Amino acid sequence: MVGSPDFSLQQGLLSLLLLQVSMWGADAFVVIGPSEPIVAMLGADTVLPCRVSPVMNVEKMQLRWFRSQFSEAVYVYQDGLEEVEEQLVDFKGRTELVKDHITEGRVGVRIHSLRVSDNGMYKCFFKQGNDFEEAILELKVIGLGSGPHILIVGPEDAGIRVTCTGKGWFPQPEVQWRDEKEKKIPSLSEAETQDDDGLFQIETSLIVTDSSKRKVSCSMKNPFFGEEQVETISIPEPFFPRTSPWKIAFAATFPILWISLGAILFLFWRGQLEKKRVKKAEDEKEKEKKAKESLKIELAKRKALYEQDWTKANIYADWRKERFTEVVAALAPDTAHSNLKVSENGRCVSFCETSLNEEQESETIFSVLGQDQFTTGRHFWEVEIKMEAAESVLETRWGLGVCSDTVKRHGWFVESPEKNFWVVAFTEGEIKALTSTPRSLRLRKHPDKIGVFLDWEAGDVSFYNMTDDSHIYSFTGITFCGNLRPYFSLQGPVTISSISDHTNNCPTSSKTSLTHGTNNDVRVPQEAISLLST
Length: 534
Hints:
Elements: H1 5-24, E1 30-32, E2 38-41, E3 46-53, E4 62-66, E5 73-78, E6 81-83, E7 95-101, E8 106-111, E9 120-128, E10 131-142, E11 146-156, E12 159-169, E13 174-179, E14 184-185, E15 189-194, E16 200-208, E17 215-221, E18 228-234, H2 244-308, H3 317-320, E19 325-326, E20 340-342, E21 349-351, H4 358-362, E22 366-369, E23 378-387, E24 397-404, E25 421-427, E26 430-433, E27 439-440, E28 449-455, E29 460-465, E30 470-475, E31 484-491, E32 494-498, H5 502-505, E33 512-517, H6 526-532
Parallel strand pairs: 2-10, 19-23, 32-33
Antiparallel strand pairs: 1-3, 3-8, 4-5, 4-9, 5-6, 7-8, 9-10, 11-12, 12-16, 13-14, 13-17, 15-16, 17-18, 20-21, 21-32, 22-31, 23-28, 23-33, 24-25, 24-31, 25-26, 26-27, 28-29, 29-30
């Protein structure tokens, strides 16, 4: 019957199954982490990997790795960018996203220079729209310390007391005494402490009473890594207590033997320390050599990719200069505003504070053109900028770029592409691209040296920070007509000069200076030069 209990149960199960199927079809995914703990050495680098199932592109997802609390962010990736605002201080500058297979749903966070505090549990969290999933990972940081070192303390309780010490271990190592037949011997005492870095220092002691079992060994073993270090010592026969007639002789010889043994151990320790120092220096030299070779290979790969389509790459200004002709821009005195003074060599100009009232000064742009005129080809020139303290940053204004030689430059005019000006300027206390609506540029820092790159055929005028090779702004898709010339506008105490002779041949200024730089034949980005130098 339709109203029977069995039929109602079947109908409910069918509805639940249909609901589950509809949920499966709504771009559902599962986040999967490694099934086993990730074991890594202290001071090394490691990766915390996660992936989604089924396989899908996660570039647009929000990705987060965190500790026990969601707010304890280790790494955050959202809208295709790294976000550092929520990142824990301990991980700033030590993490990066491994995204070689991000389109396949496989990503990971690399942690550099592992610390003891990095040990423990992590979670990776993937979110798309309202759907999110997470997985748990465990990282075990391993520190193999120094030791064990065995030291004979002296006679005690009818035997000889020996101690075994070690330091720099993490986690706390397993310590074990054994006799010469590998039989375990329980320790008399064991103490452990942790230093400021969280590394364990261990000291355990043993009293050997049987002179027939003078040979003992102490081992320290990392419980996760399984690495074990062992030291063995043989206690000389005279060290053991004798019957009364020998006690005086023992008491007399023990200090001498102890001093002799101490001297031997000290010399041995010094020798081992020197060997470690030499090996460490060799290892560091080899590591540096490999790093340089790896960097050269990486730079060769990057330059090969850059060469394939360099016109679309807004990076590596030093490589870009190889395709452009350098221009050491000289200024044309006949194009300078009457309040600008051009030097005799034509490569220096300064602002002259003559009698201008506030209204005239606010309604005038003081400009000068370069002597060079361009109607084809690729050209670049460099301008160094120095800004000194002024009563108000709003008093200082400079602009540089290119313009048509037929533009209007009298009184107050508009520097914009519609008026055949392609200019970047410092105005109102910030750097702007002077488009039809001036656009503020968020730069990492105020540029000290700017390169202007003109590509006539490509219709492109680009500006670069020549100090760190970073891109500032590009005017693209331009159809040039007529002659183009370098353009500079100045307001306030400003000086423009050639970098080679500005100290001797240029008018002095107490505020801001711009300097044309010369081209250094650099074939790799500036940030790589220090690593490649020998």
